[in-house]
Design brief:
There is one protein chain. With 295 residues, this protein is of the alpha+beta class. The chain has one domain: Aminopeptidase (3-Layer(aba) Sandwich). It contains eight helices and 14 strands. A six-stranded mixed β-sheet has the order 11-6-1-2-3-12, with helices on both faces. The chain has a two-stranded antiparallel ribbon with strand order 4-5. Strands 7-10 form a two-stranded antiparallel sheet. α1 runs parallel beside α5. The longest helix has 20 residues. It is globular, with a radius of gyration of 18 Å. 40% of the residues are buried.
Length: 295
C-alpha cells in the first residue's frame, strides 16, 4: 500500500545535515597545506576519473554501533573539476545480505561503513571508492568560527517541544545564521514531506558551508577549523590522497556544487515506512546527474 510522505518521529539530536559540510571543511583545511602545483588527479586515480565518497553521519549510542542518520555520495570529477552531491535517504528500502529487506540506515549497524558502501553501490550500480564517518560534536563552533552561513529560508519555521527543550522560531527569507540557528534549521521536522524536505535542507546547508569555507576570507581560519574537527572524522582515504581530494573540492566549490536526492516514493510495507526506488529512474540519475556510464 502506498501512502503520501509524512513526518516521522525522530530523536532531537538529528543535526546531521551539517555532517557532509564538516567533512568538506576538513579536506579543504588539509588541501590548504598542499603545494599549489599538485595535480588534481590523485595517485592511482579512480576509474573514469571519478571519485565517489560515501559520507555517513552517525547516530551513535552507548553499547552499540548505532545507525547512519545521513548518507550522502560525494562524486568528484577530476577532469571537469566538478562536484556532485547525491543524498541517499536513510529510509531507502534495500536488501541486506542474509537479513532480507530493511532501511538503508540499518546497514551500518549490521556491518559498519563497508556494509553501507555495499548497499549504496548496489542501488546506484556504481563503485563507491571511500567512506567518511563523523558525529555531531562541535558543529555549532565550526559555523560560528566561519562567521555564520547565509541561508534562504523558504517559509517560517515554528516548532516547540518542551520535553526536549526545543523551541524553533526562524523567519522566512535570506539571513545569516549562527551555529545555534543552523542546528534549529537542521532539526526542524514539521514538513508534510518529512525526511525528503529535511534532505533538501541538508543540501542547502552543505553547499552554503562549503562555499563559505572556500572563500579567501576564511583561509586564515583553517588551522583553527582543523583543530575543531580533527577528532570528528574517520575515513579510509589515505593521508597522501587527502590533499588531492581537498583541492578538487575547492575547485568544485568555485565552479558551483550541484545536488540531487535519490528519486523514489514513500511507501508503507508491512507497517513500515520506506523510500522505494525505481531502477530506471536511478539509472537515469546516475547517467545524467553523476555523469557515470551504466555498467
Amino acid at each position: 500500500m502506498e501512502t503520501s510522505p509524512k513526518t516521522l518521529p525522530g530523536r532531537s539530536r538529528r543535526t546531521s545535515c551539517l555532517i557532509l559540510a564538516v567533512m568538506l571543511v576538513i579536506v579543504i583545511v588539509i588541501a590548504s597545506y598542499a603545494l599549489p602545483t599538485l595535480a588534481l588527479t590523485p595517485p592511482g586515480g579512480a576509474p573514469g576519473h571519478k571519485l565517489n565518497i560515501l559520507v555517513l553521519g552517525l547516530d551513535e549510542r552507548k553499547g552499540d554501533r548505532g545507525r547512519t542518520d545521513t548518507m550522502v555520495v560525494v562524486s568528484i570529477d577530476y577532469l571537469t573539476k566538478e562536484v556532485r552531491l547525491l543524498s541517499f535517504p536513510r529510509d531507502t528500502r534495500v536488501q541486506l545480505p542474509g537479513k532480507g529487506f530493511d532501511k538503508a540506515n540499518s546497514a551500518y549497524a549490521a556491518g559498519g561503513p563497508r556494509a553501507s558502501m555495499d548497499v549504496v553501490s548496489r542501488i546506484l550500480e556504481i563503485p563507491i571508492h571511500n567512506f567518511v564517518t563523523t558525529n555531531f560534536a562541535g558543529v555549532t563552533r565550526i559555523v560560528d568560527r566561519l562567521g555564520g552561513v547565509v541561508i534562504n529560508v523558504d517559509k517560517p519555521m515554528k516548532y516547540d517541544d518542551p520535553y526536549q527543550n526545543l523551541h524553533i522560531n526562524i523567519r522566512a527569507g535570506q539571513q545569516l545564521m549562527d551555529g545555534k540557528t543552523v542546528l534549529e534549521y537542521a532539526r526542524y521536522r514539521s514538513d508534510p514531506e518529512g525526511d525528503i524536505a529535511r534532505t533538501r535542507r541538508q543540501q542547502t546547508l552543505i553547499v552554503s558551508i562549503l562555499k563559505k569555507a572556500a572563500l579567501p576570507s576564511s583561509w586564515r581560519l583553517l588551522p583553527a577549523l582543523l583543530s575543531d574537527v580533527k577528532e570528528m572524522l574517520k575515513t579510509d582515504i589515505g593521508a597522501g590522497r587527502l590533499p588531492f581530494v581537498g583541492l578538487a573540492l575547492v575547485w568544485g566549490a568555485s565552479r558551483g556544487v550541484r545536488s540531487q536526492t535519490l528519486p523514489g516514493k514513500a511507501v508503507v510495507l508491512g507497517g513500515v515506512s520506506y523510500w522505494s526506488t525505481e531502477p530506471r529512474q536511478v539509472n537515469d540519475l546516475v547517467r545524467d546527474f553523476l555523469g557515470i556510464p551504466l555498467r
